[in-house]
Prior knowledge:
Radius of gyration: 20 Å
Order of helices and strands: EHHHEEHHEEHEEHHEHHEEEHEHEHH
Largest sheet: 13 strands, mixed
Structural class: alpha+beta
Oligomer: single chain
Number of helices: 14
Strand content: 25-35%
Shape: globular
CATH architecture of the largest domain: 3-Layer(aba) Sandwich
Number of strands: 13
Distance between the termini: 39 Å
CATH topology of the largest domain: Aminopeptidase
Helix content: 25-40%
Amino acid sequence: MYTFEITRTYLTDNEKAIFDDYLDYNGLDNSIWDVFSCLFRAGTQHTKPLLLKAYQSGELFGAAIIIECTRYGKALFNNGFLSGIINFLNIPFYLWIKFGCCMDMMSNPGFVKDPGKANEVFQEMMAYLKKNSVLTIVNDYTKNEKLYINASILPALPHAIINCSELASIQDYLLHYKNIKRKLRVFRNKGGEFNRVAHELTKEQISSMKKCFLSTVAKSVFYLPYQDLYLSAALETSKTYIDNVYYFIATINDELIGYQAAILTGDHLNALHGAFDRNLKSTNHAYDILFVKMTEFAIENRLKAIDFGAVLNKTKRKMINTSIDMSYFILSKFPIVQWFFNELLKLTKVQGKQQLKYRN
Length: 360
């Protein structure tokens, strides 16, 4: 029998140690906690990171990081009137990005004291959220459907991965992309370079990073329900020294035009946040080349895979070699609310052709 609480307070060092076995089980290491710590320091007015805790006999047994969102109209509708109505209603919902770890600085599989009881604990967590929340949406692998009893289910974008386990060198990766050598040459001829920076960025780099970030948000088809927290957390992580975090930075004539932050944890390289300056007429294939540079790093460090989050564009779909089906699982203590949001989301851009065209 488990009991639960939802709190704004992050894990203490002693509480983190409870989950050491589960980190090992999932091929993760303790560096992920520093990323989540930055996330909890970056809460905004309309988007707050929360901790769902599970207790057994009064002792902490499980935890999951969820996001409370209250202003998400723009994530659903481009139309200002419709998005304004959603914001006016101000219906809070919990979001659990439950695939991978640390992607967008928020994704987490959940953590348990005993790896053998993970599915049991997670199923109880879902039952608690369904019973006690007005609305919860969990983004998880489609294959985990059994965890979500009586949930409404909608399609989501697939999880993008580069499987490096069978790549002996970067040449093995490049063989699958006929035009990439030409793109590398064009990028170099335009004064392009990629640099790798460890741990944290300088103030000047953070300023350029923010510029790239804001231009991407302004021009993207996607607007995340936690968009304000995403930028706040990206700025917080970038100025914080974190072991095993690397920034892959693209410059042209020494001007930063884009980047990707990632954390090396266990045998994976997981994307944290990234953006390119979309105000430029061209980045001269820098985004394509980013995948090459990250794959090269992963192979050199004998990593199994790179996790890139969701497939959001044709370049990412082209440059990865593995994807996994994902779904949205919708839960509510009020059946009418669950039904309403299931039907509402079908009418929004979240389920539109532009966003779902990269689904398998």
